[in-house]
């Protein structure tokens, strides 16, 4: 759980004309401050992650990675120390290929050197993208970088983008191996700031539920990409849907928004302790879609450590709809609690129906 810049701020490197929003130390210090001051870290959002476009266009004379000096005048280690001093964790980005996706120096040919550099900077998490890789053997490349990280002796959560660069058939074949060398992995498209983008990712997870759930466990999770709650693309109902589905599928909760300017309703959704508890459930079992498909009403369930179930009733249609949950999977009887409204709804037999679920909304 934490914050990442990419979806909201992309590759804005114009720190001269846009100092408050460019990919630079001020942005990440601001977000670290907001995580602590506004209560996000208290409910679990701990990582502050830099994505692409932080680098200079070339390495130094010794082959070392160098941050853009105009954007990070104090250096990466100073930023890392600033984040750690606030009780937070620091994440960074690189690429397995010769260049990052944004055209900056990649790590191919420098795995050991770069791993040592990240460790020396106090990095706690590394996202390794898959652009411009000259070797088609992603398995060997990601394995070798994992080995390089482990050799540093520093615990670094390893986020792999390997699955996003291969076909579904290949993903299904390699997922068990990925779970051995990666802690989280990006499976599919980058999210954009829209309901259609978010829903397409959720529906991909629904269509691949069995395969994805089979490999998810504590220490190894599928990553559905960033939370866009608090930007302009999702209304409150749609935002609850993203929070609910991402929690059901045990995806990392990495916000990509401007925490300096976020609606109160969005903050309430993002800091909902009952929903976060589902996402962070210690059993680590990924939930699945049990009925419905894209463009229809859907039912998703997730088994939790206390043997209860979290359920999301998602209305992926343009109209208000009733959604019924068949209670056969819990022996036909269940006490139901609404996690967004924080109230007990009663004990139900045979089925439970949520009436008038708004278009694109979810009851959890």
Structural description of this entry:
The protein is an alpha/beta fold and 364 residues long. The protein is built from eleven helices and 16 strands. Strands 7-6-5-4-3-2-1-8 form an eight-stranded parallel sheet. It has a four-stranded antiparallel sheet with strand order 9-10-11-16. The radius of gyration is 21 Å and the shape is globular. The two termini are 20 Å apart. The mean pLDDT is 97.
What are the SSEs and their pairings?
Layout: E1 2-4, H1 6-9, H2 25-37, E2 47-49, H3 76-85, E3 89-95, H4 111-120, E4 125-129, H5 138-151, E5 157-160, H6 168-181, E6 184-186, H7 195-207, H8 209-215, E7 221-223, H9 236-248, E8 254-255, H10 264-270, H11 273-279, E9 288-291, E10 297-303, E11 309-315, E12 321-326, E13 333-338, E14 343-349, E15 351-357, E16 362-363
Parallel strand pairs: 1-2, 1-8, 2-3, 3-4, 4-5, 5-6, 6-7
Antiparallel strand pairs: 9-10, 10-11, 11-16, 12-15, 13-14
Helix pairs in contact: 2-3, 4-5, 7-9, 9-10, 9-11
Question: What would a concise description of this structure say?
Answer:
The protein is of the alpha/beta class and 364 residues long.
Major pleated sheet: 8 strands, parallel
Low-confidence stretches: none
Please state the structural category: alpha/beta
Kindly provide the radius of gyration, computed on alpha-carbon positions and rounded to a whole number of angstroms.
Answer: 21 Å
Q: Quick one: how many beta strands? A: 16
Q: How far from one another are the termini?
A: 20 Å
Provide the helix percentage. 25-40%
Helix count from the secondary structure assignment: 11
**Going across the major beta sheet, what is the strand order?**
7-6-5-4-3-2-1-8
Q: State the order of secondary-structure elements, H for helix, E for strand.
A: EHHEHEHEHEHEHHEHEHHEEEEEEEE
Beta-strand content: 15-25%
The shape is globular
């Amino acid at each position: 759980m934490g914050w990442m810049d990419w979806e909201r701020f992309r590759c804005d490197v114009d720190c001269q004309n846009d100092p408050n929003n460019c990919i630079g130390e001020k942005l990440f210090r601001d977000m670290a401050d907001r995580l602590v001051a506004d209560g996000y870290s208290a409910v679990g959002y701990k990582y502050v992650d830099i994505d692409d476009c932080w680098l200079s266009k070339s390495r130094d004379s010794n082959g070392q990675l160098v941050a853009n000096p105009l954007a990070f005048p104090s250096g990466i280690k100073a930023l890392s120390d600033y984040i750690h001093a606030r009780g937070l964790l620091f994440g960074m980005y690189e690429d397995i290929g010769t260049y990052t996706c944004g055209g900056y120096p990649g790590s191919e040919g420098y795995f050991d050197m770069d791993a040592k550099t990240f460790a020396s900077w106090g990095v706690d998490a590394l996202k390794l993208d898959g652009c411009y890789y000259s070797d088609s053997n992603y398995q060997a490349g990601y394995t070798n970088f994992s080995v390089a990280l482990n050799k540093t002796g520093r615990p670094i959560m390893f986020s792999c983008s390997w699955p996003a660069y291969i076909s579904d058939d290949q993903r299904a074949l390699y997922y068990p191996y990925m779970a051995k060398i990666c802690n989280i992995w990006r499976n599919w498209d980058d999210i954009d700031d829209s309901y259609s983008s978010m829903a397409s990712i959720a529906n991909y997870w629904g269509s691949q539920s069995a395969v994805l759930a089979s490999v998810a466990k504590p220490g190894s999770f599928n990553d559905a990409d960033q939370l866009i709650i608090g930007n302009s693309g999702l209304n409150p109902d749609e935002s609850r849907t993203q929070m609910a589905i991402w929690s059901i599928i045990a995806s990392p909760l990495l916000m990509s928004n401007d925490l300096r300017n976020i609606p109160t309703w969005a903050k309430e959704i993002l800091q909902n302790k009952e929903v976060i508890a589902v996402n962070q459930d210690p059993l680590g079992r990924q939930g699945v879609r049990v009925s419905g498909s894209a463009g229809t009403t859907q039912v998703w369930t997730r088994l939790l450590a206390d043997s209860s179930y979290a359920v999301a009733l998602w209305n992926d249609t343009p109209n208000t709809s009733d959604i019924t949950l068949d209670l056969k999977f819990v022996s036909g009887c269940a006490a139901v609690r609404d996690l967004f409204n924080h109230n007990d709804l009663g004990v139900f037999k045979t089925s439970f129906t949520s009436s008038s679920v708004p278009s694109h909304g979810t009851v959890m």
